[in-house]
Design goal:
Layout (H helix, E strand, L loop, with lengths): L10 H40 L4 H10 L2 H9 L28 H5 L3 H12 L7 H44 L2
């Protein structure tokens, strides 16, 4: 008997909790992406129509220009296009004992088979015998990988918008 089998005899409910957490992270990341796309559009409009002009303002526009296609790509359905998660793919790095089953980065590093075995131990058994549970785990792994991809695109978008804002601020301060 595992440690968690006496706590929760229903592994499906716990799998859905992990699945819902990954989906919530996906929607939060999408909202942040929309916010930064809106900020970049507002910044471009501000630089174009309310700035004194000059070289730094022009460079700010050039820096902010890739933010729109990057945001469109990050928010497109092509990023989260569902594809089957290979069951026996090798993980990028073998997981040691320091991982979290609620961290999307850690979940994305598992193959479906490795996560199934890990969750089977964690939830007290019975997952590997049911294809339904393995399908939920496949959705968890796929969703976690999409979240990690979108978070990377969000970091790039944030950097682009920040660089554009700093250049615009410099153009206002130095009026060049």
């Amino acid at each position: 008997m595992s440690v968690s089998s006496h706590l929760t005899p229903d592994p499906e409910r716990r799998l859905w909790i992990i699945h819902d957490r990954v989906q919530e992270l996906l929607s939060v990341t999408d909202r942040k992406l929309w916010l930064f796309v809106f900020l970049s559009v507002a910044q471009i409009a501000l630089v174009r129509f309310a700035s004194p002009g000059g070289m730094l303002a022009y460079v700010s526009l050039i820096v902010l220009a890739p933010a729109l296609p990057l945001g469109a790509f990050a928010l497109s359905p092509f990023v989260e296009r569902p594809r089957p998660v290979p069951v026996h793919e090798s993980a990028p790095g073998k997981k040691g004992s320091a991982y979290s089953l609620l961290s999307e980065r850690d979940l994305a590093g598992f193959s479906q088979a490795d996560l199934t075995i890990t969750l089977d131990k964690y939830l007290g058994g019975g997952i590997t015998a049911t294809p339904y549970y393995e399908d939920i785990i496949g959705q968890i792994v796929g969703g976690a990988r999409v979240v990690v991809k979108k978070e990377l695109l969000l970091k790039i978008l944030c950097s682009v918008v920040l660089a554009g804002q700093l250049l615009f601020l410099a153009s206002l301060l130095f009026r060049t």
